[in-house]
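hey all, quick one before standup. I had two proteins in the batch that finished overnight and I want to keep them in one place so we stop losing track of which output belongs to which input. First protein below, input sequence then structure tokens straight from the run.
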Amino acid sequence: MMDYCGRDARGPQRGVSLACIAALTLAVFPAAGQQADSYNHPAADPSHDLTTKEFFKDVGGNFVGIFNVHNLGAFAGGAAAYGLSTIPEQDLEKHFARPDMWGVWGNPGRYIGNPIILFGAGGAMFAVSRKSDDRKFRSFTYALIQGSFVSAGVVQANKFAWQRLRPSGDDHFAFPSGHATDSFMVATIAADHYGWKAAIPGYALAAYVAATRMEERKHHLTDVVAGATIGYVIGKTITRRMRAAGKSKVTWNVYPSGKGAVGTVAWQLP
């Protein structure tokens, strides 16, 4: 039997499988991030005492910000990748049907991308950053903890809505992959704060995590592609709003019309 990369799927395929999956997963996303030049959000200001109200207001704003026109390109790219990933999906599932294909090489993925572990690590970094004067580090850790909250809400809502059976048959929470979502969210935030030096290892590690979720038969290929797209969009949304200091822009105009006037109001989310 031939796998989608054109190799014999019955032979040892650890390296080939990982390379092919990583290439497909990363095809939609940039290999390097655009490093943020400014950290205008109050959370980045060492002199600002962040309140609980401000924190959860940002969480709500980031949820809403996902549906911003700035994210249309990412959603379109993700939709295209999702469609393409349906082609090799069945062959990949047959390929990964053999138990424990990668042995110990696949084990780290279940921990690296675990949402609970990432939330704990992000929370600890956020607590440490509150004592730091480094605006970039403060902004980075705040974006991470915001991303964990937003990711949890989006992923769990979709899991319960779609009820997709896992390849292993364990339960109906396959879509989307939470591990892939959080891994790509962290990689995107890191890339936007620290540039290509963080982007390259970040996205490579995220692709590895996504691949291990298929190797363990926890997710279909389309689950991890959807998770990667969601994570990328969440990361971009948060960093974009932080650069804009989380503020919306409202503009209005009044034009004469006959004996009266016509007014327009535009509300632009960051």
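OK second protein, same deal, sequence then tokens:
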Amino acid sequence: MYIFKYGKSEQVAKIQTQLQLVQYSRLGSTMSLNLQSMVDKLVTIITTDGRLLVGYLRGYDQTTNLILSASQERTISPDEPCTTEDLGLYILRGDNVALVGETDEEKDQSINWYVHVIDSSSLWSNADMEL
């Protein structure tokens, strides 16, 4: 014999809450697994305000706060050469993280980030635009 403490609607709400907690914990564990594979590797991070950070991921927590070492902020503009600012050990709040991706060190080092990028609008003349 089962004794019910709650009415039917309260039981349904309680079960739905439990299911949501299970789904949330699975989502958190998936994020943790993805970040765990990137620890001690070079990563590129794009923040919600558009900054681009590169550094070695040293740690993280459940709210995606990140700890980077040997980090740099790169500013890439179509009108000016890339600038790089060394940040060193850097802690990034999880609310500001939009994207985290592992970076291939060899490819990253082979790119000359300081080459002046030519503005593409100057490559086209009005004659080229006519069909």
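Flagging for whoever picks this up: The chain has one domain: 8-103. The chain is about 30% helix and 30% strand.
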